[in-house]
Amino acid sequence: MTHNDLLNIAGEYGSPVYVYDADKIISQYNRLTGAFSNVSNLRLNYAVKALSNISILKLLKTLGSCLDTVSIQEVKLGIIAGFEPHRIIYTPNGVSLEEIEEVAKLGVQINIDNLSILEQFGSKHPSIPVCIRINPHVMAGGNSNISVGHIDSKFGISIHQIPHLLRIVDNTKMRVNGIHMHTGSDILDIEVFLYAAEILFDTAKQFKDLEFVDFGSGFKVPYKPGDIETNIEELGEKLSARFNEFCTDYGKELTLAFEPGKFLVSEAGSFLAKVNVVKQTTSTVFAGIDSGFNHLIRPMFYNSYHQIENISNPEGRERFYSVVGYICETDTFGNNRRIAEINEGDILRFKNSGAYCFTMTSNYNSRYRPAEVLWYNGKAQLIRKRETFDDLLRNQVEADLEVFSEVAKTDKKKRNIEVATT
């Protein structure tokens, strides 16, 4: 997908707009399966929360992917996209027992991450197999908000609570068919990941009817030229050998599962926005775009880095710009970035915008959510319409202000009488 292709998309569908390159998603999927080709049974559960557009889910289904979901709504999206329930795993956090039971009725694999719900679910539904999410107390992730395996995390059942966990399983006679962990996103050191894997293997030995071991994901992708990333090929070689060894000791061929989200779709995504104004101050040159953290919140929320290109003038002389949005609060996408000279009306491209970008958009400042476009087989296809003013009003219900007005008049009259009598 060239700069001209992107400019044509911005011209046809307007800005801001999200664009996803199907070829990159396919190559990332194939890269991951290739890295673990020495494992007999490999299952990739795409993390729907990263990018939940139905067309993206259908694309991944054609590749053989399964799904990782965290809400009943994501489960239903997966089923609408054509995934069979047994090819979906549901890993919620802090949801009600009622939602978990509703998902279980659909035939989806349940993954439970706390002792209270485990005991309640096992007592009521001992015949429904469940996976158990373990917290290995291993810190991983590039930001505290995405490090979920450490000791203070709300996610998973602590390895120090294993005796309690085993008592619940024994007392309820429930069936545990999977063991799961997720240490966090942006894994840099594969040795840390392998260390956590050993903790999961030790835990898995204590369950006799396992069908799969799920290692979560969190593989880091590069955000700029020369950036470091998870060495997926080295991890594949080392973890595959260790997993095959574990299966031999366990006496059964198990399935090795992962839940990649960012790894599959992050680099495939581009966010395009138009420059509304170039503003020179005493110390900074601002490029103000027709968007804000209502459309791309990650730089403000996670301090994430998105490489910014001026695709309208890619060969222009580089200057320093701070790229900012139009929200009524600070929404800086990048400070003092070297970008080819920007003029008002130019289109800027934010790279690595496929994961956790559109899914975290909002209508803050009553702005519309942008359109989404899929670049597939050399053609652009609209896969989500830009919102309109009608969408802002769709679920609003107008109050009967005449009732409020009459109440106010009555109260005012009552107060006037009280004042007059005193």
Automatic annotation (TrEMBL):
Substrate binds at residues 298, 302, 329, 356. InterPro entries: Ala_racemase/Decarboxylase_C, DAP_deCOOHase_LysA, De-COase2_C, De-COase2_N, De-COase2_pyr-phos_BS, Orn/DAP/Arg_de-COase, PLP-binding_barrel. SUPFAM superfamilies: Alanine racemase C-terminal domain-like (SSF50621), PLP-binding barrel (SSF51419). The keyword Transmembrane does not apply. The keyword 4Fe-4S does not apply. Signal peptide: none annotated. It catalyses: meso-2,6-diaminopimelate + H(+) = L-lysine + CO2. PANTHER family: DIAMINOPIMELATE DECARBOXYLASE, GROUP IV DECARBOXYLASE. Specifically catalyzes the decarboxylation of meso-diaminopimelate (meso-DAP) to L-lysine. This is Diaminopimelate decarboxylase. It comes from Neptunitalea chrysea.
